[in-house]
Write a structure and sequence with these properties.
The complex is a heterodimer of chains A (264) and B (167). Chain A is α+β, with helices and mostly antiparallel strands. Chain A is built from 4 helices and 12 strands; from the N terminus they run ααααββββββββββββ. In chain A, the strands form 2 sheets. Chain A has a 6-stranded antiparallel beta barrel. Chain A has a 6-stranded antiparallel β-barrel with strand order 6-7-8-11-10-9. The longest helix of chain A has 26 residues. In chain B, α2 packs across α5, α2 crosses α6 and α5 runs antiparallel to α6. Classes of the chains: A alpha+beta (264), B mainly alpha (167).
């Protein structure tokens, strides 16, 4: 009987030791780096399948056609920005450019190593952390300066990013309409963003381009965010609200870039 | 001790597959509850407490890596793991597929209830806006994926056990 109890205690001690070692392994630098080596190809394989299994996303187009159309949307959006910015006589643009230059930004490329498996939040981990200079609040972009999220926590070798469509994330944005409406867009369900408290007299159209306003610490102005998908009156308030569709779907990417402010 | 290390290794592989591979898949495939399914199988059909430890570890790691869908998910996973063990011992038969399935859905229901309570409390204290329709829609999709995972594990495990290598 006593032997049995002793064996049982030994088992629990052994189990505790293994759990402790596992957690230590996963949270120290060497363990994290080792895991990243395994995680990168797994995320790559999943994303590769995701890009090809297009019928699950409700489309009837081939992956090549989808990619072409996505590039086209992005390129049109960029053209539209250039056009709008050129046609305004552009003290504002100069100021913005000066502002971006003043920010003293540095770019670090990172791989996505894990994602949250739910549709109510949109979170992913990247293989760059504190030791690479990543800080909480740093903006995360993909190709051509499309803002996709912000760093919410960092460990020495990795960081967690909340995408802009996450309900806990608010982003200072500006609309490229006549009045250059500014506000804070917050994530809502269905991978969308919502811009609230827009005055009713504001001229705002579907397909207006939304960019970052630069009124947020660490996030420079002029990063692409999305297009206005819908404009509707707010319930019980004399304001409009705009639903914004992000320009890119982060689940289609395995590589992102973190914009960092260089240490002063 | 070797068995514990082997179990920890299998858990790690399963965890990585779920959070890196499956979560990158499109649509409802991203919701595949691989660790939960395997844990329930170990607890219910094999009578191994490793499943309980896997679920607790999963909660810890999700919180540690900040990729949990809810805050403090560790508590939800501990409650679900504990109740799954109780159900496996006192409610469901461990011989049939339906017993395993019953335990899996009982455990999942418990996990969802715990998450709902945590989210509700969080929404009261932090003014967190929770879209409950999305939450329950996700839960429904995930429960269907759980059914697929359990069927797959049950079929594969039976085939492995009846192979000449194990006989």
């Amino acid at each position: 009987m006593r032997m049995k109890v002793q064996n049982r205690s030994l088992k629990f001690v052994g189990l505790g030791v293994v759990i402790f070692l596992l957690i230590i392994f996963l949270t120290t630098g060497l363990g994290e780096r080792t895991l990243h080596v395994v995680q990168r190809p797994l995320v790559g394989a999943g994303t590769w399948i995701s890009q090809r299994v297009f019928f699950l996303r409700g489309g009837q187009l081939s992956p090549e056609e989808v990619a072409k159309l996505q590039d086209r949307v992005l390129s049109l959006a960029i053209d539209r920005v250039k056009f709008d910015e050129l046609t305004r006589q552009n003290k504002d643009l100069k100021d913005t450019l000066k502002f971006v230059e003043r920010q003293d930004l540095r770019l670090v490329t990172a791989s996505i190593i894990a994602r949250s498996n739910t549709t109510q939040t949109s979170t992913f981990s990247i293989d760059r952390g504190e030791q690479d200079g990543v800080q909480v609040g740093d903006p995360v972009i993909v190709k051509d300066g499309v803002l996709v999220g912000k760093v919410v926590s960092v460990t020495p070798k990795s960081a967690t990013v909340h995408s802009l469509a996450d309900p806990s994330v608010g982003t200072a944005v500006s609309l490229l309409n006549q009045s250059q409406t500014i506000g804070v867009a917050e994530g809502i369900a269905g991978n969308l963003l919502r811009l609230k408290f827009i005055p009713q007299q504001t001229s705002i159209q579907v397909n207006d381009l939304v960019i970052s306003s630069g009124l947020e610490t660490g996030v420079p102005a002029g990063l692409f965010i999305g297009l206005v998908n819908d404009v509707r009156p707010e319930q019980n308030a004399p304001f409009l609200e705009a639903v914004i569709q992000p320009l890119v779907d982060i689940r289609q990417y395995t590589i992102v870039h973190v914009l960092m402010r260089q240490s002063l | 001790m070797t068995r514990f290390f082997l179990s920890a290794g299998f858990f790690l592989i399963t965890f990585l597959f779920e959070t890196s591979f499956f979560s990158s898949l499109p649509s409802f495939l991203a919701l595949t509850p691989l660790v939960f399914g395997l844990s329930i199988y170990l607890i219910q059909h094999e009578g191994m407490m490793d499943g309980f430890v896997w679920m607790v570890l999963y909660g810890i790691l999700m919180d540690l890596f900040h990729i949990a869908p809810i805050p403090f998910s560790f508590f939800a996973w501990v409650i679900a793991a504990g109740l799954s063990v109780l159900m496996a011992r006192h409610v469901f038969s461990n011989r049939s597929f339906y017993g395993v399935l019953g335990c899996a859905f009982g455990g999942y229901l418990c996990l969802m209830l715990s998450e709902t309570i945590i989210l509700f409390l969080q929404s009261l204290t932090d003014k967190l806006v929770v879209d409950w329709s999305i939450f329950f829609h996700t839960a429904l999709q995930q429960s269907l994926m759980l059914l697929c995972v359990m069927s797959f594990i049950f079929a594969i495990a039976r085939r492995i056990r009846s192979s000449p290598f194990f006989l």
